[in-house]
């Protein structure tokens, strides 16, 4: 035996096994392609990016249709400056409104408008159809359940790192 350890280079650096590498590469390629498909379809159909739809959906699902900018930035994993530009653009389209919080003048509150709610509902229909067609469609029910479980486990592990 020449001292070769499977999964390691000659210098001892850990490497992914072939199966691990293929699993990760397939996942990453799928996420990137699916994101591209969703962005293209949402932009072509509704003039909204996937990120815009996610933001509007968060507001639409909030109890009063509003959220603080800081909470939105955290939920969207977005830099505050990027979120500010995005909200300004959506405000220019009449989909959201910004206001200073009546409880704390240092905070900005974003509220979805009726036009925003209408467009969000339409965009979420497109979103669901695209996900069902291109992501879930090729899978069996057991595969969908297994993917949900796997992604939840991965996500739960990542939450612990980010805490």
Automatic annotation (TrEMBL):
Coiled-coil intervals, chain numbering: none
Gene3D superfamilies per record: Winged helix-like DNA-binding domain superfamily/Winged helix DNA-binding domain (1.10.10.10)
Domain (HTH marR-type) ranges: 25-156
Signal peptide boundaries: none
Source organism, top-level taxon: Bacteria
SUPFAM superfamilies associated with the record: Winged helix' DNA-binding domain (SSF46785)
Protein name: MarR family transcriptional regulator
